[in-house]
């Protein structure tokens, strides 16, 4: 009440204070206007309170300095935003106790993994192998027509991994192939990482991948980064040198990006690496992992049900959607080379001063 009355004048102050102290204050006021009215009239009114100094705007706090990791060991893979072992009520496996425990067990293996140690092998169940087989069989029928062929990127890299519909690939084996092809490696993770941590990992040529399988009741599509999405969608493209270099450049740009830039860079990654499409002749073909790893999404893209928009990496990009089903808008590259050049040019605008130690670690020296 006192703060509200500063500079309001004595009369106003009396009116506001009286109710605050109740009936006793009213009685005191009555005595002052009774027999002693003359004395009260002779008294000089108190001077109005001095106005309070104008509030000064709070000084804008300087943003916290960006902590640049000097090695992969300093990239945190433990801050999980979602899509881990804790399933939401709308997840198809929420009421499946066996599946939920399976997710817990596999995610715990990722949490205990140490850099430099072999990635633990998962003994996938027959039910999980069936999901893998269903997705892989459907996708292999769609790839020749709808996966990008430009410079043979996706289809050329696919045979390097000798995928079989009867066996879910192991991350350790895939990592070895990538290291020979482009120098990338795989690090297991329990779910969806914070954007900064995930992108920082790419700077050290490391792709963070889950190992759990989507629920058997929904093989066609899942918003989760499950092992099908990671292995079929991301891994083959990371074996292409030009594509791997592009992803690496995005990672390097993330090391010195501020929070606003990280958010925009995450959207750029989402609409290219995850859901990118490219023109080939008169057709639009997929190269994004979210399209290539979902036969439902791939069919949706091929059916011209979504809006196609030219990509401008410097322009504001719409909100990303994890759980709203198939994409309603794809951003199109006119060619992979042109899009890659645009992305790399944007990434260079984010480069700030970086210690030589870090520059050497990410291959800039």
Automatic annotation (TrEMBL):
<dbReference type="GO" id="GO:0005506">
    <property type="term" value="F:iron ion binding"/>
</dbReference>
<feature type="binding site">
    <location>
        <position position="274"/>
    </location>
    <ligand>
        <name>Fe cation</name>
    </ligand>
</feature>
<feature type="binding site">
    <location>
        <position position="229"/>
    </location>
    <ligand>
        <name>Fe cation</name>
    </ligand>
</feature>
<keyword id="KW-0408">Iron</keyword>
<keyword id="KW-0560">Oxidoreductase</keyword>
<feature type="region of interest" description="Disordered">
    <location>
        <begin position="33"/>
        <end position="61"/>
    </location>
</feature>
<dbReference type="InterPro" id="IPR036951">
    <property type="entry name" value="ArAA_hydroxylase_sf"/>
</dbReference>
<feature type="compositionally biased region" description="Pro residues">
    <location>
        <begin position="44"/>
        <end position="54"/>
    </location>
</feature>
<comment type="similarity">
    <text>Belongs to the biopterin-dependent aromatic amino acid hydroxylase family.</text>
</comment>
<dbReference type="InterPro" id="IPR001273">
    <property type="entry name" value="ArAA_hydroxylase"/>
</dbReference>
<dbReference type="InterPro" id="IPR018301">
    <property type="entry name" value="ArAA_hydroxylase_Fe/CU_BS"/>
</dbReference>
<dbReference type="InterPro" id="IPR019774">
    <property type="entry name" value="Aromatic-AA_hydroxylase_C"/>
</dbReference>
<feature type="domain" description="Biopterin-dependent aromatic amino acid hydroxylase family profile">
    <location>
        <begin position="51"/>
        <end position="365"/>
    </location>
</feature>
<keyword id="KW-0479">Metal-binding</keyword>
<dbReference type="InterPro" id="IPR036329">
    <property type="entry name" value="Aro-AA_hydroxylase_C_sf"/>
</dbReference>
<keyword id="KW-0503">Monooxygenase</keyword>
<feature type="binding site">
    <location>
        <position position="234"/>
    </location>
    <ligand>
        <name>Fe cation</name>
    </ligand>
</feature>
<protein>
    <recommendedName>
        <fullName>phenylalanine 4-monooxygenase</fullName>
        <ecNumber>1.14.16.1</ecNumber>
    </recommendedName>
</protein>
<dbReference type="Pfam" id="PF00351">
    <property type="entry name" value="Biopterin_H"/>
</dbReference>
<dbReference type="GO" id="GO:0004505">
    <property type="term" value="F:phenylalanine 4-monooxygenase activity"/>
</dbReference>
């Amino acid at each position: 009440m006192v703060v509200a009355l500063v500079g309001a004048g004595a009369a106003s102050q009396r009116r506001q204070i009286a109710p605050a102290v109740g009936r006793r204050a009213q009685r005191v006021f009555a005595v002052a206007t009774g027999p002693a009215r003359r004395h009260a009239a002779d008294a000089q009114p108190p001077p109005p309170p001095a106005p309070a100094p104008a509030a000064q705007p709070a000084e804008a706090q300087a943003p916290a300095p960006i902590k640049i990791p000097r090695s992969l060991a300093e990239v945190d893979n433990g801050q999980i935003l979602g899509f881990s072992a804790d399933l939401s009520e709308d997840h198809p496996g929420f009421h499946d106790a066996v599946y939920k425990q399976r997710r817990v067990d596999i995610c715990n293996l990722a949490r205990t993994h140490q850099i430099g140690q072999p990635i633990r092998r998962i003994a996938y169940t027959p039910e999980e192998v069936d999901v893998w087989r269903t997705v892989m069989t459907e996708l292999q029928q769609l790839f020749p027509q709808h996966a990008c062929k430009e410079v043979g990127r996706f289809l050329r890299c696919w045979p390097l991994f000798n995928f079989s519909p009867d066996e879910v690939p192991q991350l350790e084996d895939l990592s070895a192939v990538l290291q020979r092809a482009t120098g990338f490696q795989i690090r297991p993770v329990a779910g969806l990482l914070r954007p900064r941590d995930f992108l920082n990992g790419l700077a050290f040529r490391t792709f963070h991948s889950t190992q759990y399988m989507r629920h058997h009741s929904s093989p066609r599509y899942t918003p989760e980064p499950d092992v099908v999405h990671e292995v079929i969608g991301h891994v083959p493209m990371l074996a292409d040198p030009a594509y791997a270099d592009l992803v690496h450049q995005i990672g390097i740009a993330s090391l010195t990006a501020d929070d606003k830039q990280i958010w925009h860079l995450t959207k750029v990654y989402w609409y290219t690496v995850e859901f990118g499409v490219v023109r080939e002749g008169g057709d639009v073909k997929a190269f994004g992992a979210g399209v290539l790893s979902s036969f439902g999404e791939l069919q949706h893209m091929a059916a011209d049900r979504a809006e196609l928009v030219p990509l401008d990496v410097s322009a504001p990009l719409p909100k990303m959607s994890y759980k709203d089903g198939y994409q309603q808008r794809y951003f199109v590259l006119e060619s992979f080379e042109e899009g890659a050049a645009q992305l790399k040019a944007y990434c260079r605008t984010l480069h700030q001063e970086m210690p030589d130690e870090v520059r050497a670690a990410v291959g800039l020296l």
